[in-house]
Write a structure and sequence with these properties.
The protein is an alpha/beta fold and 391 residues long. It has two domains: 163 residues, 3-Layer(aba) Sandwich (Creatine Amidinohydrolase, Chain A, domain 1), CATH 3.40.350; 222 residues, Creatine Amidinohydrolase, CATH 3.90.230. It is built from eleven helices and 15 strands.
Length: 391
């Protein structure tokens, strides 16, 4: 765990007046332990614990090999359930760790009992436990809570989300590299797009280019012509035609962190209406970025987009959301809505967008990722966000 994460989690413990904080979602487990995966098994959650005495990871015994083969680091590992492994005379480092974790006493049968054992190992035998139950179904939440005995359980979900809002140096560097990969892969698509290319072919090429750069692509949303007015329609077999608007909304995951970029192109010279709408939306994004600084309520960023787009020629423009935080999840807090009073903080990484969807005509949406600095915003994108012309 990096010092930044430890500092943020210590503050979260204090905010909850808790003796331990328990994470159950994949993102928050990764934040505490550095373990990105493995995929959750039905009814068998992975839990991470942070307390003044250290950290612990509670996981199904079948997942201990994946943990042993990862870069995750915790003070205590408590497997639960039964898994049978065989070991060679020299099982290697992974095998030795797995054998140590799975043969240390009798493994608890259920997650709740394993969590109680982890808390005991951290010296938290009573007191208050801040539990983020977002990764548990109702039955598991009852089982886990019931296994904690006399300990008091309070909600820890909001505190964990708040801890993750402000990124540390390594997180910012990782997000920036992921964004660079997404932009490089998108550029490869733009270079070959021409009339006759299909949305699906463009999406498949993006995915291939992202993987070639050792990132995991997220389902790209690439749309042509009137389909650009569909905010989240999957790519289809529609072929690009001259004069079409093209919306390129793509992203990838790099070392567990999410990166997205959205750009707009036209197949051939843009017409007056396409230029007018794009210019208005671009001015909206400029205004949003200019509004970003520590202490600014999130709603002011949304208001800046709306005012600028209306002023630039779309007087009826309205939008319910212009972005959100990003990191271990695609969407994190703060959410940039018209009614959000959440103040921005230095170190937040925001994905800011200015969308416009007109059914029967098309849609224009551009998006940048910005870092909230001490006095304003720094755009992390390197690609040109002007209207691209595909010759």
């Amino acid at each position: 765990m990096y010092p930044h994460q430890r500092e943020r989690l210590t503050a979260a413990l204090a905010a909850c007046h808790a003796d331990a904080l328990v994470a159950t979602t994949r993102a928050s487990v990764a934040y505490i332990t550095g373990l990105h995966g493995p995929p959750a098994h039905a009814g068998a959650p992975t839990l991470a614990v942070v307390a003044p005495g250290g950290t612990a990871l509670v996981l199904p015994a079948i997942d201990t090999p994946a943990l042993a083969d990862s870069d995750a680091g915790v003070d205590h590992v408590v497997p639960y359930g039964r898994a049978v492994f065989a070991y060679a005379s020299d099982p290697g480092d992974v095998g030795r760790r797995v054998r140590e974790w799975t043969t240390r006493g009798v493994a608890p049968a259920a997650a709740g009992a394993a969590l109680a054992a982890a808390l005991d190992a951290l010296g938290v035998r009573d007191g208050t436990i801040a539990l983020d139950d977002g990764g548990l179904n109702a039955t598991l939440a009852r089982e886990v809570t019931g296994a904690l005995g006399s300990r008091t359980v309070v909600d820890g979900g909001a505190a964990l989300l708040e801890a993750r809002q402000v990124k540390g140096p390594w997180e910012i560097e990782t997000l920036e590299r992921g964004l660079g990969i997404a932009e490089e892969a998108l550029n490869a698509v733009v270079q070959v797009l021409k009339p006759g290319s299909t949305e699906r072919e463009a999406a498949e090429l993006f995915e291939s280019e992202a993987r070639r750069r050792e990132a995991t692509p997220r389902a790209p949303l690439i749309a042509f012509g009137p389909r650009t007015a569909l905010p989240s329609a999957p790519p289809s077999a529609r072929a690009l035609r001259r004069g079409d608007l093209v919306r390129l909304d793509v992203g990838c995951v790099w070392q567990g962190y999410h990166a997205d970029v959205t750009r707009v192109a036209v197949a051939g010279a843009p017409d007056a209406r396409q230029e007018e709408v794009f210019d208005a939306v671009s001015r909206g994004l400029d205004a949003a970025i200019a509004a970003v600084r520590p202490g600014t309520p999130a709603r002011d960023v949304c208001a800046a987009v709306i005012a600028a787009v209306r002023d630039k020629g779309l007087p009826a423009y309205d939008v319910h959301l212009v972005g959100y935080g990003t990191g271990l999840e695609v969407r994190e807090t703060p959410i940039l809505t018209a009614d959000s009073r959440t103040p921005l903080e230095a170190g937040m990484v925001l994905r800011i967008e200015a969308p416009y969807y007109e059914h029967g005509w098309g849609g224009v949406r551009i998006q940048d990722t910005v870092l909230v600095g001490r006095t304003g915003a720094r755009v992390m994108n390197r690609s040109n966000r002007g209207l691209l012309v595909l010759e």
